[in-house]
């Protein structure tokens, strides 16, 4: 009896957690439909989010920033992951891995504060540029889209690299050699063989990075200086600072839908790609 | 839409080829000359350097020293994609995300071959390898044999100067493997390409190759036709690698009429054709292939040109075409005799003592 | 250990529950505990030192702080958990308190039972809220990096301050900055267009929009900005610890004053909570907390500390903004600010 209960008991905590999360999610949905009387339901909040250009800007700007950050992270992360898996000595590999792990383990807010110290008006980069005489006025490296992008990218880069190095490690090196022997120059091998075979990892990394960036709150708060519009900040501002829980909830609802759509699109793309050549 | 492969047969030469991998010597000062259109097998146990040699010829493994030339042109520093050397990998390395047709034309696309010619090559090579029906299939759906044919078609389509095959049959099951040997040789000869094939299976090497290079610890132990290696091995390593060999250890005595007298036991000596550098008093091994031995109930003294050694039958193993007879000689060493069909030698009964006899000319002296 | 079946387990659970219930109810009978939703940090410390500890010593009623990071955040939580919170008192600003009252989240305060209410300015003690302190707002600047001495609000337009100023995010500080700009430009709480025109003139100078006191202090002390356009004087006392170069200005012609207040939540222990409020607005408690926080005491009999007098001279003109009116337009102002200024 007791023995048979054990598996069920082990599931209980995660079950409670999931139910609690679902309850939270459903109450957000409930608030978003609140018409103020406490009894009726309305889509007015959603309507105003869609029709109001200044609200829409939070969504388009977030999507744009998340897209750019993900693309840059992919372009930066791929060579890093590739180097780590194919060129690095076991010692170097361990070092890189430890660094990535440290980035995972360190607090996100702390990392962003670190960037503030680097990008700020009196930060490391500007101090260096001033000292080198490149400029005599410090550059604005944060409180703009650039700063937020740097923050987003540095936040998602470890996820991207770790998503990629799995597939890169599993790459059959002989496929690249075969392509080379068939006359493919190194860049052709990379584009026609390496990249397509890494698609599962690219999709996973892209999905993770895109969603993390899209939902990012701390980064625009600390590095955006109120000048960069992102949805999470809008939701916080509306529900907490302005007490407009219904509008904030509706924005959260739309963010949820966008995230779900992104997951769905990338999963379908991955499935299609896979089904073609895997049993 | 006529198309024929446009291969220029080119020879391959290795001079002093030396390769180190992670501080370990894998290939040690190897020289090898391969004629245009010839099929050469690199045969040896795993770790002997045969695959490394193939990879060095392909340009996938830079050598420490030495040169590789193809058609008289030194290729040592040329990158793989400019060498025009084709390779069929052990696991075939088909591109999983491309159809059979796209795999086959990959090389042509890389070499910017005109579309019309590309289509012609594709159609012709798919037809030649009986893959036409599978042109739109992805590799994961193909059987091992089909994958191998795609791999060969893909490689040959680029009209390489040399074709390298790394254990081409090892991924197939045993039955298919035996059938494919003949087919592979026929195909290579039909195409007329210079081919180097790596294998650890002696039968495969014998069936496919014109010449076999037996490799041992980074060096070529001996190179020659199958018959040369079988009948004139220059070392026990080569002798053991192809077929079974009975060895008689002894001390070299006098030499008469081109024959060495070798004492293998007190009052027992055999004679063998002399090899050039053997001196009196030296210890040697004398090899005798099991099928060269006949049986006699008594020693037929002084029959000229015949060696005779006493032994006792331990077991008889009937295998259809042939029968294995295992003997033990007086010092307990196993002696193998193979006789075929209804040979009267097979009448000998278990435990019987008889004499093993073979022509002196069938004895092979190998330095111990 | 023998077998332990489900029925045994249920019995045990029921027994534990019964014991637990009996325990808490007996505790509740023994002593009173007031739960106060309030800000932490220097506010919390000041409240403990000047209100909670002496009050407990005097009345035997202990109290504890439930942390909030902003009163609007608490409003959101109160709305979300309608009637399910067991807190008694809430330290708030006028706007959230007004909104909470409208939503029926508050308990009426028995003003007639507050002996010290007589020493409060008119309308600072009513059944909705009781004022607890005045927060004067002004400008803080770094005298080493700012090219001139700031004296007036309109100095914020000066082009020498290009990219040097941090301004409130959206309608932060309960819309007081936007209302102030409107008043300066000839409008008022109901006509803010002139205020936005004025803000547009300042816009090139704004480099960052801040969401909290802590952020303002951090950006100033790290040298990220040289001027804070709008900040409670308490931030000045935090910054002064970082260096003497930081100056607080009570700019001409007038400065807005925001009243923080205390309200009673639905389901509160009215008797104990009323006693607490009366204690908090007493002369001694007021002088102590005002000195510690760097704000103006609300009790007219309480003396203003010399430190505060230096930052807010006696001749400073105050302007009480119409916070209830502001609170109804906060969302619209916030949108407009984000769209036009940020």
Model description:
- The complex is a heterotrimer of chains A (279), B (368) and C (342).
- Chain A is mainly alpha-helical and 279 residues long.
- Helices cover 80% and strands 0% of the residues of chain A.
- Chain B is of the alpha+beta class and 368 residues long.
- In chain B, the strands form 4 sheets. A 6-stranded mixed sheet of chain B has the order 6-7-8-3-9-10, with helices on both faces. A 5-stranded antiparallel sheet of chain B has the order 13-12-11-14-20, with no helix packed on it.
- In chain B, α2 crosses α3 (115-128).
- The longest helix of chain B is centred in the middle third of the chain and has 18 residues, at 174-191.
- Chain C has helices at residues 6-30, 41-59, 71-80, 94-102, 176-184, 193-202, 213-221, 233-240, 270-280, 283-293, 306-311, 323-340; strands at residues 33-39, 62-68, 89-93, 106-107, 130-142, 165-168, 206-210, 227-232, 246-249, 255-265, 296-297, 318-320.
- In chain C, β1, α2 (41-59) and β2 (62-68) form a beta-alpha-beta unit.
- Classes of the chains: A mainly alpha (279), B alpha+beta (368), C alpha/beta (342).
- Chains in contact: A-B, A-C.
- Chain A binds chain C through residues 1-2, 27, 31, 52, 54-55, 116, 120-122, 140, 143, 221, 225-227, 229, 237-245, 247, and chain C through 3-5, 70, 72-73, 75-76, 79-80, 96, 99, 163, 169-172, 207-211, 222-225, 330-331, 334-335, 338-339, 342.
């Amino acid at each position: 009896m007791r023995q048979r209960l054990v598996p069920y008991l082990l599931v209980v905590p995660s079950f409670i957690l999931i139910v609690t999360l679902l309850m939270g999610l459903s109450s957000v949905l409930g608030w978003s439909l609140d018409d103020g009387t406490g009894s009726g339901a309305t889509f007015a909040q959603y309507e105003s989010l869609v029709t109001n250009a200044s609200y829409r800007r939070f969504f388009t700007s977030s999507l744009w920033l998340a897209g750019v950050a993900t693309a840059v992270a992919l372009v930066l992360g791929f060579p890093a992951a590739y180097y780590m898996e194919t060129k690095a000595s076991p010692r170097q590999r361990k070092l890189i891995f430890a660094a990535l792990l440290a980035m995972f383990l360190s607090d996100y807010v702390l990392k962003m504060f670190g960037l503030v110290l680097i990008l700020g008006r009196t930060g490391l980069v500007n101090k260096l540029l001033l000292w080198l005489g490149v400029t005599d006025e410090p550059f604005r490296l944060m409180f703009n889209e650039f700063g937020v992008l740097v923050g987003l990218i540095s936040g998602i880069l470890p996820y991207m690299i770790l998503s990629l190095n799995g597939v890169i490690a599993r790459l059959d090196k002989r496929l690249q050699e075969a392509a080379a022997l068939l006359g493919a120059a190194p860049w052709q091998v990379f584009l026609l063989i390496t990249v397509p075979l890494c698609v599962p990892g690219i999709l996973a990394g892209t999905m993770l990075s895109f969603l993390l960036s899209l939902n990012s709150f701390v980064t625009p708060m600390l590095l955006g200086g109120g000048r960069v519009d992102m949805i999470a900040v809008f939701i916080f501002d509306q529900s907490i600072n302005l007490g407009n829980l219904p509008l904030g909830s509706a924005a959260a609802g739309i963010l949820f839908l966008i995230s779900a759509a992104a997951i769905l699109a990338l999963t379908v793309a991955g499935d299609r790609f896979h089904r073609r050549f895997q049993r | 839409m006529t198309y024929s492969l446009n291969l220029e047969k080119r020879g391959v030469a290795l001079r002093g080829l030396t390769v180190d991998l992670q501080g370990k010597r894998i290939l040690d000062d190897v020289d090898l000359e391969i004629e245009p259109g010839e099929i050469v097998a690199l045969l040896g146990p795993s770790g002997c350097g045969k695959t490394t040699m193939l990879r060095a010829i392909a340009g996938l493994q830079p050598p420490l020293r030495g040169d590789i030339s193809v058609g008289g042109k030194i290729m040592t520093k040329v990158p793989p994609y400019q060498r025009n050397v084709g390779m069929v990998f052990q696991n075939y390395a088909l591109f999983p995300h491309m159809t059979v047709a796209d795999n086959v034309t990959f090389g042509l696309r890389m070499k910017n071959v005109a579309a019309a010619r590309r289509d012609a090559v594709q159609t012709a090579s798919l037809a030649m390898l009986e893959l036409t029906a599978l042109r739109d299939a992805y590799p994961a759906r193909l059987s091992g044999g089909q994958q191998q044919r795609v791999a060969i078609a893909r490689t040959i389509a680029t009209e390489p100067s040399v074709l390298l095959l790394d254990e081409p049959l090892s991924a197939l099951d045993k039955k298919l493997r035996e059938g494919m040997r003949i087919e592979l040789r026929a195909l290579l000869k039909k195409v007329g390409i210079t081919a180097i094939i790596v294998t650890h299976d002696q039968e495969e090497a014998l069936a496919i190759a014109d010449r076999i290079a037996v490799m041992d610890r980074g060096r070529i132990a001996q190179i020659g036709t199958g018959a040369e290696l079988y009948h004139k091995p220059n070392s026990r390593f080569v002798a053991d690698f192809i077929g079974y060999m009975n060895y008689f250890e002894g001390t070299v005595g006098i030499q008469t009429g081109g024959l060495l007298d070798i004492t293998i036991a007190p009052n027992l000596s055999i004679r063998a054709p002399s090899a050039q550098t053997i001196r009196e008093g030296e210890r040697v091994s004398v090899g005798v292939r099991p099928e060269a031995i006949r049986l006699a109930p008594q020693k037929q003294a002084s029959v000229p040109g015949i060696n005779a050694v006493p032994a006792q039958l331990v077991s008889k193993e009937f295998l259809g075409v042939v029968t294995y007879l295992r003997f033990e000689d007086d010092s307990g060493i196993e002696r193998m005799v193979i006789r075929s069909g209804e040979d009267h030698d097979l009448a000998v009964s278990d435990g019987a003592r008889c004499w093993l006899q073979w022509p002196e000319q069938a004895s092979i002296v190998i330095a111990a | 250990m023998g077998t332990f079946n489900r029925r045994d387990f249920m019995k045990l659970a029921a027994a534990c529950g019964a014991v637990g219930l009996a325990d808490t109810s007996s505790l509740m009978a023994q002593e009173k505990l007031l739960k106060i939703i309030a800000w932490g940090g220097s506010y919390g410390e000041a409240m403990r030192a000047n209100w909670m500890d002496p009050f407990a010593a005097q009345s035997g009623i202990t109290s504890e702080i439930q942390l909030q990071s902003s009163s609007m955040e608490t409003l959101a939580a109160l709305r979300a958990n309608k009637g399910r919170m067991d807190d008694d008192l809430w330290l708030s600003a006028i706007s959230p308190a007004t909104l909470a009252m409208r939503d029926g989240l508050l308990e009426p305060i028995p003003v007639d039972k507050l002996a010290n209410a007589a020493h409060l300015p008119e309308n600072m003690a009513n059944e909705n809220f009781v004022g607890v302190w005045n927060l004067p707002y002004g400008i803080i600047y770094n005298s080493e990096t700012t090219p001139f001495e700031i004296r007036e609000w309109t100095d914020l337009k000066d082009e020498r301050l290009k990219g040097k100023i941090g301004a409130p995010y959206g309608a932060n500080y309960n819309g007081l900055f936007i209302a102030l700009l409107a008043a300066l430009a000839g409008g008022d709480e109901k006509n803010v267009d002139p205020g936005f025109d004025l803000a547009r003139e300042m816009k090139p100078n704004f480099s960052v929009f801040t969401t909290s006191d802590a952020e303002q202090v951090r950006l100033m002390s790290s040298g990220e900005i040289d001027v804070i356009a709008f900040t409670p004087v308490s931030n000045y006392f935090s910054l002064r610890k970082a260096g003497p170069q930081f100056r607080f200005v009570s700019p001409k012609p007038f400065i807005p004053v925001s009243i923080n207040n205390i309200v009673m939540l639905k389901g509160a222990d009215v008797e104990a909570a009323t006693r607490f409020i009366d204690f908090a607005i007493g002369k001694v408690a007021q002088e102590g907390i005002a000195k510690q926080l760097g704000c103006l005491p609300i009790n007219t009999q309480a003396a203003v500390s010399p430190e505060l007098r230096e930052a807010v001279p006696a001749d400073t003109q105050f302007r009480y903004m119409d916070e209830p009116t502001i609170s109804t337009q906060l969302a619209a102002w916030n949108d407009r600010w984000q769209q036009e200024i940020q």
